[in-house]
UniProtKB/TrEMBL annotation, chains A, B, C, D:
A Pfam family of this chain: AP_endonuc_2
Organism, as annotated: Martelella lutilitoris
Protein name (record): L-rhamnose catabolism isomerase
UniProt key word Manganese: yes
Domain Xylose isomerase-like TIM barrel: 107-291
C-alpha cells in the first residue's frame, strides 16, 4: 500500500502519545468493566466501522458570497484520492471515497480504480449532478432536471444518472445517490403534483437501469438552491419515492437538510421501522444546510442518531451507508474530514455503551428520569481512548491532526499544486 | 328555525350597508367579467362552502400561564350550540359543529340532536380526548394514551374513542378525529418504534369499530404537549398511519402544527396526490401552535392552501373536511369564529379566481414571473363584496361583527350565564 | 432624457389598458371617498415614493450550487445603468441606483455620473465589499475584514470603505452601507467580545472619514456566510454599533436577515423609537436570506412593515433609506426589480389607507378584533389602480412587465452583450 | 440544621459508591495533571458554585392541555421549602430558593425566613406575577399589566412589584425579577411604541422603589403567552430597558426564550461586554419555551454559555445570578431539579477546564480547527467525579437521585400531603 504520510513521522508522533493512551485506555477499561462492558469489544466494533469520504470534500468549499481556497487545492480526482488516502491512513476510518460526476470524470476508469487500490481506497456511492450546467451541455437545468417540464431535459438528466451507474460499475461502487435541486422560487411557479409525477417517472427510468446488487438513494432537503418549494422536501416525500420505486430504493438522510427544530433521530427511527433507511450524509449545522464538521455544533444530536442505529443493529437487511458531506470553508479540508470521521466513530462508540436492557426497563416503567440519564451516561463517557486505540492498532495515528501537521503534507502539496485564486460566489 | 339574533336588528344592519354592497358587487362583477369570470358563479360556489365550528372554540381559551374568561362563557354544549347558531345565522358559513368528548358529553343524545336541528346545526367530526385525565378515570394519560406502555391504558383510550363513535352515530356525525398528545420530554424516555407500533395497533382496534360510511382522521403535530418527541410528529408519519389503517383513514392538517418555515401547501398537495388528505383544522400562527384566528397572520399562506384545494376540486373522492380550530384568548370567541369563517371563504373565493389555464401555460413555459403574478392577481382581488353578497342572499349579515355587536347578544348571555373566574394555567 | 424603451411602444401598451384603468380608478376613488379618503392624495404620495435599485440586481444571481445566467447579462456598470433606466422609465418608482464597489468601479467617475444624469438616475447609498477577495488584494478576508485579528487586514478593509465614500462623493451619494460577512464557523474559533471590539474600532475609523451630510448604515444578519456566529448578528448588536458610532450612524434592516419567526415590524418600531432606523433592504424569504422578490412570499408582513413607517411619517429627522436587495435566479432581473418596486409601493399605498384614528381608539380600548380588522381592511384594498395611475401620470407604464415584454429590450441587449456561461457555485 | 433525608441512608448510599469515586477521581486527577490542571482547584470552584431553585419548580408543571400531578405535591411554600431542602442536602448546589408572589405569599414573613434558616436555605431573587388574575383583584391583566393602556391597571402592577420588593427585604433577598406576558395576539392590537413607553414608565416607578443594594432583572421572551408580539421580545429590547432604567437594572437570560437557531452564547457575551448581564433562568428546550431539565436536550450549548461566563470571571462587578426555571411534567420535580443543578455545575466544571491561553493563541492565528477542538476537549472530559467529590466533601450524595430514591422521601410526603387531582389546562 502506498503511504502518503511518512511512516517514521507517524511512528514518532504515536510514540509520544502511547504511554498516556495506554494508561487512559486501561483506566477506561476498568471503569467500563464495572458496568459489565468489555472495552476491547467496543474497540473492535469501532475499528470495523468506516465512513465514506466525499471526493469534493477534499477541496475548500464556499458560499454564494465567496470561496477562499487554501494552499494545495486538489486539481482533479487523483489529487483528491491522495488527500483521501491521508485521511484514511491516519484515521483508519475512511476506507472508501464517494465520487461526484462530472467533477471526478476521467478518461480511463481502470486507471482510477487501480489508483484507488494502490492507495487502499474503495469506491462508495456515486453522486450525480443535475443541479449545475456543464460546458457544452445541450439542455439547461435552470428550471429543473429530473422534474423539468421539458422531456428532453429530463431525458438528459436520466442519461446522466445512468452514466454515473456505468462509471460506478467500472469502479466497484454499489450505489447511486440522487440529489436534485429541483423546486421553485415563487408560489405558482411549479405545479407541485405534476412536477413530482415527472420526477417519479424519471426516477423509474433510472431505477430500471440499476444492477441487481445496487441500491439507489434519494435525498430530501427542505430548501436551497430552491427557495420556495423543493421537490424532495422532506422524509415524507422521500419515503413515498422509495416506496414507489421498489426494493432497491432507499432514503438518504443528510443531517443538515431539515426544518428548524425537527427531531431527526425520530425520522431515522421511522425510516428504519419501515425498511427504507438508506444511509447518511453526516455534517453539522446551526441554521440551514451549513455543512459544518460533523458533531461540531450539536454532538448530543449526533449521538442520538447513532443511538437509533445501534438499537437497530443486527436486524435483517439493515445496512445503512455512511458518508461525510461537508463544506470546509475555513479549515484545512483534510483536517476537517479526519475530525469528522473521528466524531462519527465517537458517537458510535458512545451509543454502543448504552445499557439497552436497563433502558428498556425504564422505558416500560415510564421512568423518564432514569431512561434519559441512561443515554446521558453513555454520552458523557469520554471514549477518546477507545477511538485512539482503534486507530493505533490499525496502524493509524493516536492524534491524527497532530500527526498530519507534523508530516508537512499540506506544504508538500502546496508546492506541487498551483495556487488557486478565490472564485467569486454565485451572487454576481 | 330558531333565530338567536333578532331578525329586525339584522335587517336594519343590512339595510344600512346594502347600497354600498350593491355598488361594490356590481363594480367587481364588471371587473371580473373583463377577465371572463361570472361573479355570480363565484358567489354561488362560495355560498355552498361551509366550515365546521369547534364546540370548544365558543369558550375563551388560555395558555399554560393563565386563562382570562370573558362575559357570558358557555357552561355546556347547549350554551355552545346557541353561540354556534349565532355564528351560522350571521355568516351562513358554519352549518355544522364539531364536538369534543367528554367536554360535550350529555345524558340525552336525542335531545342534543334535536337542539341542533332546531338551531339549524348539524354535527361534524367527533373529537376524542386522551390528553387529559378526567375525574374518576382509572388509568392516567400522564405517560401516553393510545401508545402507552401499559395495555390497560391503551384499552381505556381505545374504548373512549369507540364511545365517541357511538355518540357520533347517534348525532349524525360521519367522522372521528384522533389527536393525541403522546410523546416524550426527554431523549430516551420512549422507544420511538415500539411506541409507534403500540399506537398503530391501538388505532387498528378503533378503525375496526368504524362504520362503513365513516372516516377516521389522524392529526400530526410537531410538538406540545410533548417537548422532545411526538408520536405523530409530521405528515410523513401521518401518511404511514393512514396507509396502515386502510381506505377509511385520512390525514388531518392543522395549519399550526408544523416546524418553522415548512411549506404547508406542498404537504397538502402531496396528501391529495396520494389520496390521503382528510381535511383541515384552520387557524393561523406565527411561532408555534398559536391557534390564532384564521388568516390573521399570513393570509397569503391560507390562500395558497386553498389554491391547492381548488386545483384538486372535481377529482373523484376528493372531499376534505374543513373545520376551524382556534384558541380565543383576547377576543370574543363568537367574533373570532365569525371572522375566521369569513377568512376561509375569502381564501376560497380568491383561489376560485385563479386563471388556471394561463397558470398551467406559464408553468409549462417556466415563466416564473407570470405564474406567480397569476396567483397574486387572484389574491389581490378584494372579494369582500362576493362574501357579503353570499351571506346576504342566504339571510346572513353583510357585516357579521357589526350586526352581532348591534344585537347585544353577548350582554344577554352574560346576564344569563354566571361569571367565571380566571382559572390558572398549567404551570402550577 | 434618454429613453431606453421606445415611447411609441409604451404609449401603445398604455392605450390598450387606459380605459379599464380609468374605470377601476374611479370606482376605487368612490369606494375610498366613502371612507373619507381622497384617492388623488394617496396617488400623489405614492408617486413621490421612490426605492433605490441595487446595481448588482440587474444581473442574474445564483446560489452556492450554481448560477444560470440569462440572455443579455450586463457586463459592467454602464450596462447595469441602462437596465436600471428601463426599470425607472416603466415604473417611475426607482429614481436612484445603489452601487457596489469594486464591482461597479470605473476609471472615470464623472463619466459615470453624467451617464446617470442622462438616464435620469441618481446614486443612492454606496456599498463596500469586504466579504470577497479581489485579484491582487494584499490581505485576504477569509477570516474576516473589519473584525479580523490582523491589524493590516482591518486597515485594508477600512481603507476600502473610505475609498467607497470618496467614490460616492464624486457621484452625489450621501450614504455608505456596510455589510460584512465576518463571523465564525465553529464554537471557539473567535472570541466574541474581542472580535466585536475590533469591529467597533474599525468602524470608528470609517465614521471619522464620513462627510457631515452623510449617513453610515450597518446591516445585521443572523447567518451566512458565517455559520456559527456573525459579528453583527441581530438588531440588538446593530443598535449598539449605531449608538457607539454617533449621530450619523443608523441601522439597516434587510427583511431576510432574521431568525425564523421573528417579528420584524416590531424591530422596525423599536429602531424608530430610539432614533436609529437607517433604512431597508427589501426582499422576501421563506427560509433564510432567500433574497426573493419583495412581497412574493408574505405580502402581509411587508404591509406591516410599511404600517410602522407610515405611522412614523412626519416625525422629525425620520428619513429612512429604501432599497431593493434581491437575487434573481429564475426570472429576468429587470422584471423582478420592476415587480418589487411595485410591491413596495403597494404596501406603502395600503398602509396609507389605514384609518389611524380608529386604530388608536381600538388599541386604547383593547378591541383586538376591530384593531386587527382595521389593518386588514387597508391591506385587502386592491390599490392596483392607484399604483398604475401614479405610473401613468408620471409617464410610466400601466403594466410595466407587459410593456417591457412588448418592447423587445431583453432580446436587443442579448444581441449586443455576449452570452455568459454558467459559473459554478461556491461549493467546489 | 434540619435534615430532610436521614443521614444514615445517605451515608449508606455514599459508602457503596465511595471506592469507585475515589478511583475515578484519582484517575481523572492524573489525566488533568498532565494538562497542568489541579483537580482539587476545580473541585473547590465547583463546590463554591450555587444555583437558586425556583419554589414553583417543586410542584409538577403542566401545559395548556393538561397537568398531571404526582404524589406528594407541595401545598404551600413551607412544603416547597422542605422539598428544596432535600435538593440542597443531596446536591449541596442549591443554597437559595427563589420565591414567586403571590403563589408563595404568607402571613408571617419572619416565620418563613426562620424556616429557611432552619433548613439551611436563603432567599434569592423575588418574582412578581402580573400574568395571571388573582381572586378578588380589581383590574384584570387580560390585556397587559405594566404596559396596559389603562393607568389603574399599570399602577396595580407597579404596586404588586413594590410589594414583592417589600417581602423580599423581609426575607433577605437582594433582587427582583420582572417577567411580564404583555404583548398582543394580532397585528394592530397594540401600538408597539406607545406600549413600550408605558412599560418603561411603569418600570421606572418600580426602579425608584428599589433599595440601593438590590438589582432588578428584566426578562425577554420571543412569544407565549402572547402570540403575535411581546413587549420585551428579545435581548435588544431588554438591553434598552436596562439602559433606560439605570445602573441597578440588568437583563436576565432564560435559555428557552429565543427564536429558533439563535446563538444564545453570543447574546451572553454581548450583555457581559456592555455591562448588563443580570443572570440566567436555566432550562433546556427543543422547540419553544419547553422548560425541560437543564442540559437534557443540548448539553454542548449549555457548556458554551458557561464558557462565556468563565471567560468573564474575575471582571469587576461581574456577578450574574443563576437560577433554574423549569416545568416538570413527567418527572419527580425534586429529581429534575437535582439533576439540573448537577448539569449546571457540570457545564461550569467543563468550562473551567478550557485551556484559555491556548485558545487565545488559536483564535489570534485563525486556527479554527484547534480553537474548536480546545473547547471540545474540555467538553468531552467526563467531570462526573469532580461533581460527585464536591458533593460528597460537602456532605451531599455521591449519587443524589439514587440516595433520594433510597430515602423514601416522596412516599413519605405522599402520605402527608393530600392527593391532587389533575387540573385541566388553559384551553377550555
Amino acid at each position: 500500500m502506498e503511504q502518503m504520510i511518512d511512516s517514521g513521522v507517524l511512528a514518532a508522533e504515536n510514540e509520544k502519545r502511547a504511554p498516556a493512551l495506554e494508561q487512559d485506555y486501561n483506566t477506561l477499561g476498568e471503569k467500563l468493566a464495572r458496568r459489565g462492558i468489555s472495552i476491547d469489544d467496543v474497540t473492535s466494533k469501532v475499528a470495523a466501522y468506516g465512513v465514506a469520504v466525499p471526493s469534493w470534500g477534499a477541496g475548500t468549499g464556499g458560499t454564494r458570497f465567496a470561496r477562499f481556497p487554501g494552499a494545495g487545492e486538489p486539481r482533479h480526482i487523483f489529487d483528491k484520492l491522495e488527500d483521501c488516502a491521508v485521511i484514511h491512513q491516519l484515521t483508519r476510518a475512511t476506507p472508501t471515497v464517494s465520487l461526484h460526476i462530472p467533477w471526478d470524470k476521467v478518461d480511463d476508469l481502470s486507471e482510477l480504480r487501480q489508483r484507488g487500490e494502490a492507495l487502499g481506497l474503495g469506491f462508495d456511492a456515486m453522486n450525480s449532478n443535475t443541479f449545475q450546467d456543464q460546458e457544452g451541455q445541450e439542455q439547461s437545468y435552470k428550471y429543473g432536471s429530473l422534474s423539468h417540464t421539458d422531456a428532453a431535459t429530463r431525458q438528459q438528466a436520466i442519461d446522466h444518472n445512468i452514466e454515473c451507474i456505468e462509471i460506478g460499475k467500472a469502479l466497484g461502487s454499489k450505489a447511486l445517490t440522487v440529489w436534485i435541486g429541483d423546486g421553485s422560487n415563487f408560489p405558482g411557479q411549479s405545479h407541485f403534483t405534476r412536477q413530482f409525477e415527472r420526477y417519479l417517472e424519471a426516477m423509474k427510468s433510472i431505477y430500471a437501469a440499476l444492477p441487481d446488487d445496487w441500491r439507489i438513494f434519494s435525498e430530501h432537503k427542505i430548501f436551497e438552491p430552491a427557495f420556495y418549494s423543493t421537490v424532495v422536501q422532506d422524509w415524507g416525500t422521500n419515503y413515498l419515492i422509495a416506496k414507489e420505486l421498489g426494493p432497491k430504493a432507499f432514503c438518504l438522510v443528510d443531517l443538515g437538510h431539515h426544518a428548524p427544530n425537527v427531531n431527526i433521530e425520530m425520522i431515522v427511527a421511522r425510516l428504519i421501522q419501515f425498511g427504507k433507511l438508506g444511509g447518511f450524509h453526516f455534517n453539522d449545522s446551526k441554521y440551514g444546510d451549513d455543512d459544518l464538521d460533523t458533531g461540531s455544533i450539536d454532538p448530543f444530536r449526533l449521538f442520538l442518531v447513532f443511538n437509533e442505529l445501534v438499537d437497530a443493529e443486527g436486524a435483517t437487511d439493515f445496512n445503512p451507508a455512511h458518508m461525510l458531506d461537508q463544506s470546509h470553508n475555513v479549515t484545512d479540508p483534510i483536517e476537517s474530514l479526519m475530525r469528522s470521521a473521528i466524531e462519527v466513530r465517537r458517537a458510535y462508540a458512545q451509543a454502543l455503551l448504552v445499557d439497552r436492557a436497563a433502558l428498556t426497563g425504564y422505558q416500560d416503567d415510564n421512568d423518564a428520569m432514569m431512561a434519559s440519564e441512561t443515554l446521558k451516561d453513555a454520552f458523557r463517557t469520554d471514549v477518546g481512548p477507545i477511538l485512539a486505540m482503534a486507530r493505533r492498532q490499525a496502524g493509524g495515528a493516536i492524534d491524527p491532526i497532530a500527526a498530519y501537521r507534523a508530516s508537512g503534507y499540506r506544504q508538500k502539496v502546496a508546492d506541487e499544486r498551483p495556487a488557486v485564486t478565490g472564485a467569486g460566489g454565485g451572487i454576481v
